[in-house]
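User: Hi! I'm working on a homework problem where we have to compare a predicted structure to a textbook description. Could you give me the structure for the chain below?
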Amino acid sequence: MYDMNVRRTALALVAGGHSLNAVSRQTGVSRSAIRSWQRRIDPLRSPEPCPRCCGAPAPPADRAQYAYLLGLYLGDGCISPQRHRKGLACLRIACADAWPGLIDACEAAVLAVRPGGTVRRVQNDGCVTVTASGRHWTCLFPQHGPGRKHERTIALEAWQQAVVDAHPWELVRGLVHSDGCRITNWTTRVVGGVTKRYEYPRYFFTNRSDDIRRLFTDTLDLLGVAWTQAGACNVSVARRASVALMDAHVGAKY
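Assistant: Happy to help. Predicted structure tokens:
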């Protein structure tokens, strides 16, 4: 175990341009320990102040990225306390391996909302969980709570709704990237005695929470996107003009 002064000295030397080998020789700390400290929040750097806990509470500075991250969190995210670090909570958002661009976008959004933090990617079976620890995730996402989202009320606070009203497409994109998809449907018609196949794109959003689906459809209404209910938990966007709007602002996952 190394005390904080040793950690500060080692990280300051690395930040000053010294190699890990040189710092290890000078401080007696192994290179693996120094690398581990680098992956954590730098103790030499003061954490970014929480915009919700300051004297005049405000939304995060990058409101567009917050709206996108809010959509990802409502779809495939959770916040849980860290068992061995009192006061810290961990934001976790699951992203399928099939969409590496989504993983990158999720990480970028986390860093934009909490600048100066550390983001990790944890490989699981079929997905990567983007994780970030901090003391203020519960301030930024007050929808957290015990139990599953579809079994409790999910409602935006006034400041969150103001962010969504200013950046509605970012929220829709985050929700679709988490619990939605763009697919190509097809059908056949007989024209002049010949059966022809027609293909058309379509968006689906699937979530068991009535509140989250309503947030999605209310935002679509604000944007002029036509939608229909397709089963108990599915929302469909299939009209050509509405699909074109979704393609311009959301697009398929990648």
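For your comparison, note the following. The chain has ten helices and eight strands. The two ends are 43 Å apart (CA to CA). Good luck with the assignment!
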